[in-house]
Amino acid sequence: MTRLLALVWPELRVPDADARPFERMLDALDDLSPRVEAVGLGVALVDVTGLGPMWGSERRIAARAVMLTRVVAPLTTRCGIGDNRWLATLAARLACPSRPEAPAAFHAIDGREALRDLPLTLLPAYAAMRQRFTLFGLTQMSQLADLPRSAVGAQFGPTGERLQSLARGHDPRPIVPRRRPEREEARAAFEPPLDGIGAVGLTLRRLAAELCDRLRERHLAPGRATLVLTLEDAPALRVAQPFPQPALEPDWIARLLLSRLEAAARLRMLPNANLVDVMRLERPDRCAHPRENFGESMSLGVVSGARAAQHSPKDNPIGVWQEPALHEPEHGLEPRLASVILAFDRLSDPATRQLPAFEARAGRWEELRWSLERIRHRFGEGRLWRAVDERPTAALPEHRSRLVDIGQ
Amino acid sequence: MRTDAAISLSLATALDTLRQRGLGLRRGSEAPMPEQARPSVPTGHRSLDAALGTAGWPRGALALIDAPAGSGATTLALGTLAAAQAVGGLVAWLDLDGTLDPAVAARLGVSLEWLLVVHPRDPAEAIELAAWLGRSGLIDALVLDLGEWAAPERRALDRLAGLLARSGSTSALVLSPAGRTVTGVVAGVRVALQRTAWLGIGRDLVGQRVQAVVERHRWALAGGSAELDLWFGEGRRIDPLVATLAQPQPLEERPALRVVSA
Q: In angstroms, what is the C-alpha Rg of chain A?
């Protein structure tokens, strides 16, 4: 018999809840069972069938799940165990903490008979349907469950039949285990650390090629890259860059990451940023204006607080490069690069990229999107648009098409 | 004392060496080398392609359409984009004033699916964005519509022209009524448009006839001209009957606008 454990975190079910720990909590639950489903934000289902001999009673299994997730985030948890999705989630809903400050509450529903005395208001029905149940004098699960199925179908329709199945404790929906997010990582460490991080471009290209080779063998393509630059005398710089499409092109990926790095460096030039660790872009061979080299980022340098004030004053709110007053070399201020970590995730089947085989222009457009992504990093939002022919037959010309931001 | 034969031999060796380095030097006695056709983007008008001498706007070059407002520069540029798309190209429109109407572009034959619309903040940024797009080598034709803005700096335009030449794949059209001062000097091709007649059917205006004169061409003989019929309405997909029935009307006989009170 299948036994499912439902875990509900009420603090994640409120609007504007911080959803960031949820994924990591699911990752933690993978240590308990390989079959974990994320039903929604703040609700998870774990298949605990057959775990008794290993972990003990169901209460102990639930306690272990709570312990694993509380390591990630100390949130209050409601645990419920039942034979199917409906019974497990209902049990979690009925779980009451033994004391107000208890971190977790547990409830188990053993057998379908336990449902009979519960009120019908627990069913996931619309208000109108509940009112109709009340109109017919149906207030308990047993009253609905005992009715003939054909009569319920005739009176309440398919929705009523489905609710009656739930009232009888039947739920045919299986658990759909999530795919554990895969992550491929490559790193390069420099011992001793490099003076300046001008060589990051070449290293990025090499790491991206290494990861692409690994994934190509598995017929997978990454959808996002995360780059971490560990600096010796400055906080680590971490950027995550989703790709326009899953791709296995090291050159495109390296160039896109460089532009993302450049954008991240400019963000650090915002007035509210820590000016001691402000980073800016500069060609190593000359003090060039980006408008002269058309955005070709060459290297990153760290500017001290005094000099950073020249680059990011209040009249330069978006971090646009400004001609510095002084041109002395800043070798002493450049960060020393200790390591580069490049990770690919959101792996998917690259089968969706077969369109270029049929339309050559589609392949070029796909390649162009990578350039456009770099342009977005360089120039900001609201520059690149695509016209969409929404209503070609509309009476007024202005209603026939509209512009859509390519970045969205 | 070196003999003539020795000098000739050393000259031949030097010429061979230079040829190997890609420098097409020749002796005066030798036949001229066949000139390689410069790749181009069709303008959408055969007569203008012929007048340009390069079968269209040359790739890797900046071209200026010098026309007073309402003389068909935008229509000609959109026709160019449509023609570039018809042979499988990707095109872009850099719209400084935000005046591009996608519906009009679609009516003139531009496939919106393969059109990139860029909204720069100012001419300097427009030049920079054009350089980025040109450098990618993926855009076949781009139109830089400066609108009412002043022409960009000469230095920036020079850099853009150089970058396009290095890329060699993108043809950039600049639409600027006031751009003749600076842009016209930098542009490798300059075409002036002048309206010569309206095209009408009865009292309805269906297009205009424009005289296009190639005032400057760096890679072909300048001075050619072409007469273009630019249609309002459906452009390339216009009903052939309309083109047949349309009659030129003198400019001064343009029907006055009538105000109809409600």
A: 29
Cα distance between residue A122 and residue B169, in whole Å: 67
pTM attached to this predicted model: 0.66
First vs last C-alpha separation in chain A: 46
Does the beta carbon of B158 lie under 8 angstroms from any beta carbon of chain A?
no
- Longest pairwise C-alpha distance within chain A: 89
Interface of A with B in 254-293 (CB under 8 A): 291-292
Q: Does B86 touch chain A (CB under 8 A)?
A: no
CB of A364 less than 8 A from some CB of B: yes
ipTM score? 0.79
Quote the CA–CA distance of B245 and B204 in Å, as a whole number: 11
Residue A333 is predicted with a pLDDT of 56
B contacts of A292 (beta carbons < 8 Å): 159
Q: How far apart are CA B228 and CA B196, in angstroms?
A: 10
Nearest CB to B118: which of A291, A374, A384?
A384
> What are the residue ranges spanned by the domains of chain B?
4-12+40-191
Fold assignment, B4-12+40-191: Rossmann fold (3.40.50)
pLDDT at A268: 60
Cβ atoms of A404 and A385 within 8 Å: the answer is yes
Report the alpha-carbon distance of residue A292 to residue A294 in Å, rounded.
Answer: 5
List all residues 6 or more positions away from A88 whose beta carbon is below 8 Å from its beta carbon: A4, A5, A6, A45, A80, A81, A82, A109
